[in-house]
């Protein structure tokens, strides 16, 4: 490490994912951007009394241990701490500031009938016109409607989304970061503020939410007891970042200009385009596109599809059956399987719940008259071909709905390491794919902190230029004939063609 690099400040990025959390130490300076994972810890949900919860106290313990490790990397005191996590879920605090039970997991089935209740008050078209958010059965608005009348909600005086809850425990100061708030379906994306008409119509008390913060805003300093727990030397500021991990990941897309689409891959694939304003048309709603807020006033116009959750659940199923799979070897064998032999709709809500994923994939193939994949390699190829098809559909729809053109697709997040998925996505989209960085959420988290501290300058173009200059990226050119992809899409058109998809999405909120 050069003397200049050794003097560059260290920023601690807390990045909480659906299966694990980690703390990363990011070093940022002139021409310098380095990221080191200093601590990783599991995120294992707990089912209690029939309800699936996040073990948020265990996560907090992992954060504290990670901050101690980040302190060692920073010589005793990181320049700042930033926190990002998954979206929509929240913790409730009572009048004393104590947590009222562990947050409920978004995959819990408590929202099963909430969409009908909401639609009876606000028809889907009206709700979309106000908030621009894609229908997903676990959006915060549906969770709050499902929780109506419960003792926990009645006792609550504060509602904190997961990254805001962690920030509160570290600083004692409560706030609601805007990019994550935009996933609640209670934000007006044009005003970048709460939609009071929606909240009032549904009887949701916006007073439960503390004031909004924007990425780069100060979020307090580590409390004395946190300093004691972590061995850090104070003061250590906490900085609001794009606390929705996808907002941080998209901020770290190393694009050269505005002509790009992105796919943030991990448990979910979030595929779309970065815009200056939301797209609130009825056509966008029927395409099930969402308008989430990003860093620096941007809008993430995207569609959520299942992502690598499909493969993760298959791996869990095979392990439970006594057939554990080595992922690298499995992907090698999947690459040798016939392409596009069987595909499923990777955006289908039937794949949201955990359990029996290989069987459910087989059922979907059977239902659409396709060969049923019989072994792990064939199932894996089916999953990756299906994800590439879903990526193609989302990228094409994003361009059509926004009126913008993309000449490159950037794949960031964990899926950027999956060479087969990136290659298939390039072939399906007919566009070059630039893969990397894999740790995009952590990079975006660190860069927003660094800019707030004066260690990095400029807007998003400047931050992205630093990524291009310092991080390894891999480019995949499209190859082969696109007609097999067209035929594969047609095979599942009975479930996913424009007419059928519109019918299903019209029905889903009232199901």
Automatic annotation (TrEMBL):
<keyword id="KW-1015">Disulfide bond</keyword>
<dbReference type="InterPro" id="IPR018485">
    <property type="entry name" value="FGGY_C"/>
</dbReference>
<dbReference type="Pfam" id="PF02782">
    <property type="entry name" value="FGGY_C"/>
</dbReference>
<dbReference type="InterPro" id="IPR043129">
    <property type="entry name" value="ATPase_NBD"/>
</dbReference>
<feature type="domain" description="Carbohydrate kinase FGGY N-terminal">
    <location>
        <begin position="13"/>
        <end position="250"/>
    </location>
</feature>
<feature type="compositionally biased region" description="Basic and acidic residues">
    <location>
        <begin position="475"/>
        <end position="489"/>
    </location>
</feature>
<dbReference type="InterPro" id="IPR013449">
    <property type="entry name" value="Rhamnulokinase"/>
</dbReference>
<dbReference type="InterPro" id="IPR018484">
    <property type="entry name" value="FGGY_N"/>
</dbReference>
<keyword id="KW-0547">Nucleotide-binding</keyword>
<keyword id="KW-0684">Rhamnose metabolism</keyword>
<keyword id="KW-0808">Transferase</keyword>
<comment type="similarity">
    <text>Belongs to the FGGY kinase family.</text>
</comment>
<feature type="domain" description="Carbohydrate kinase FGGY C-terminal">
    <location>
        <begin position="261"/>
        <end position="453"/>
    </location>
</feature>
<feature type="region of interest" description="Disordered">
    <location>
        <begin position="475"/>
        <end position="511"/>
    </location>
</feature>
<keyword id="KW-0067">ATP-binding</keyword>
<keyword id="KW-0418">Kinase</keyword>
<dbReference type="Pfam" id="PF00370">
    <property type="entry name" value="FGGY_N"/>
</dbReference>
<protein>
    <submittedName>
        <fullName>Rhamnulokinase</fullName>
    </submittedName>
</protein>
């Amino acid at each position: 490490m050069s003397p200049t690099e050794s003097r560059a400040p260290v920023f601690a990025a807390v990045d909480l994912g659906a299966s694990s959390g980690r703390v990363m130490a990011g070093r940022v300076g002139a021409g310098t951007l380095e990221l080191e994972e200093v601590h990783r810890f599991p995120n294992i949900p707990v089912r209690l009394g029939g309800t699936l919860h996040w073990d948020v106290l265990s996560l907090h313990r992992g954060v504290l241990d990670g901050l101690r490790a980040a302190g060692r990397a920073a010589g005793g005191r990181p320049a700042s701490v930033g926190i990002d996590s998954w979206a929509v879920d929240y913790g409730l605090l009572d009048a004393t500031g104590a947590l009222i039970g562990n947050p409920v997991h978004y995959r819990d089935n408590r929202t099963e009938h909430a969409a009908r209740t909401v639609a009876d008050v606000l028809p889907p078209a009206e709700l979309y016109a106000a908030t621009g958010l894609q229908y997903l059965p676990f959006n915060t608005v549906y969770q709050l409607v499902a929780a109506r009348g419960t003792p926990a909600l009645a006792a609550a005086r504060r509602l904190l989304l997961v990254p805001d809850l962690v920030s509160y425990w570290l600083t004692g100061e409560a706030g609601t970061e805007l990019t994550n708030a935009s996933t609640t379906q209670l934000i007006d994306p044009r005003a970048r503020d709460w939609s009071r008409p929606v909240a009032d119509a549904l009887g949701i008390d916006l007073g439960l939410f503390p004031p909004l913060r924007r990425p780069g805003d100060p979020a307090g300093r580590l409390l004395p007891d946190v300093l004691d727990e972590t061995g850090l030397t104070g003061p250590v500021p906490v900085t609001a970042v794009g606390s929705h991990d996808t907002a941080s990941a998209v901020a770290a897309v190393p694009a050269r200009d505005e002509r790009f689409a992105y796919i943030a891959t991990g448990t979910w694939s979030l595929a779309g385009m970065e815009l200056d304003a939301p797209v609130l048309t009825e056509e966008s709603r029927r395409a099930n596109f969402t308008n989430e807020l990003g860093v620096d006033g941007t809008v993430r116009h995207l569609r959520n599809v299942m992502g690598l959750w499909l493969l993760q659940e298959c791996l869990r199923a095979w392990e439970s059956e006594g057939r554990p799979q080595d992922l690298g070897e499995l992907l090698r064998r999947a690459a040798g399987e016939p392409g596009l032999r069987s595909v499923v709709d990777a955006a289908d809500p039937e794949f949201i719940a955990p359990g029996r994923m290989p069987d459910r994939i087989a059922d979907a193939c059977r239902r659409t008259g396709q060969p049923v994949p019989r072994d792990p390699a064939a199932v894996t190829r089916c999953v990756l071909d299906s994800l590439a098809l879903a990526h193609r559909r989302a990228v094409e729809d994003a361009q059509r709905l926004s009126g913008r053109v993309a000449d490159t697709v950037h794949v960031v997040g964990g899926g950027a390491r999956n060479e087969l998925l990136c290659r298939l996505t390039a072939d399906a989209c007919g566009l070059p794919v630039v893969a990397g960085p894999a740790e995009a959420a952590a990079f975006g988290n660190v860069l927003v902190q660094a800019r707030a501290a004066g260690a990095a300058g400029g807007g998003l173009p400047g931050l992205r230029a630093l990524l291009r200059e310092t991080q390894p990226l891999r480019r995949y050119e499209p190859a082969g004939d696109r007609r097999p992809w067209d035929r594969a899409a047609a095979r599942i058109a009975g479930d996913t063609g424009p007419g059928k998809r519109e019918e299903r999405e019209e029905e889903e909120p009232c199901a």
